[in-house]
Amino acid sequence: MINNPKPPRPENNVISLLSHSESIKIFENKSDEEIWKAFDKGDEFAFNYIYRIYVVKMFQYGCQFAKDHSLIQDCIQNIFIDLRRKRGGLSTVVSIKAYLFKILYREIIRKQNKNKIVGQQSFEISEEGFSIEYSHETKLINDESMERKRELVMMALEKLSQRQRQAILLMYEEGMSYKEISVAMEFSEVKSARKVIYRALASLKDLLHEKAPYLK
């Protein structure tokens, strides 16, 4: 995970942010669907809440698979500008984070493909993709004394496919449900997310047993 990220700053007269404390008071106890509907109807406090809550999360997520931080910032900025322009005609959203992660991933890939066409070399997709850094809060391993086991798990994670690591990150680092993962990764069915997670965890188990059969 990227430490101390620098999220995009809103441009003057393009994205105006109101008092964050006021938006928190209004929306902290509302569902994502309610917040999104308010935003779609033109509520500036709803827009402020969404931007403030998710902009850093989006930047951190983008840094998992893209190397150019300034381009990630541009993608996020463009996403919020585009969403604001489309207010009044947005689709229903149940999980704001999953939806924003989905369109961010799509936008970064679009930019990558565009840069390839015009011959630009400034933007690269990380070859490793979706590296996962663990802290003591991490659900996969929560015993700080078991450093060796933590190292082995991280080594095993590197053996997974990029999509498997992406799914693991969304579930264990971002705390997403299978339904949210299916949205973020654009699966047509929730069971596809379950299948990817199941196979990833099964692979992790096999890899760990291979590297350290004494670990349970």
TrEMBL record:
- Record's keyword annotation contains Transcription regulation: yes
* Domain RNA polymerase sigma factor 70 region 4 type, residue spans: 151-202
Any one GO molecular-function label of the UniProt entry: sigma factor activity
Q: Name one GO biological process term.
A: DNA-templated transcription initiation
Q: A Pfam family this protein belongs to?
A: Sigma70_r4_2
Q: Which InterPro entries match?
A: RNA_pol_sigma-70-like, RNA_pol_sigma-70_dom, RNA_pol_sigma70_r4_t2, RNA_pol_sigma_r2, RNA_pol_sigma_r3/r4-like, WH-like_DNA-bd_sf
Q: Does the keyword Transcription apply?
A: yes
Alphabetically list the UniProt keywords. Answer: Sigma factor, Transcription, Transcription regulation
Family named by the database record: Belongs to the sigma-70 factor family. ECF subfamily.
Classification via PANTHER family: RNA POLYMERASE ECF-TYPE SIGMA FACTO (PTHR43133), RNA POLYMERASE SIGMA-70 FACTOR ECF SUBFAMILY (PTHR43133:SF46)
Record-given protein name:
RNA polymerase sigma-70 factor (ECF subfamily)
Taxonomic lineage from the root:
Bacteria, Pseudomonadati, Bacteroidota, Cytophagia, Cytophagales
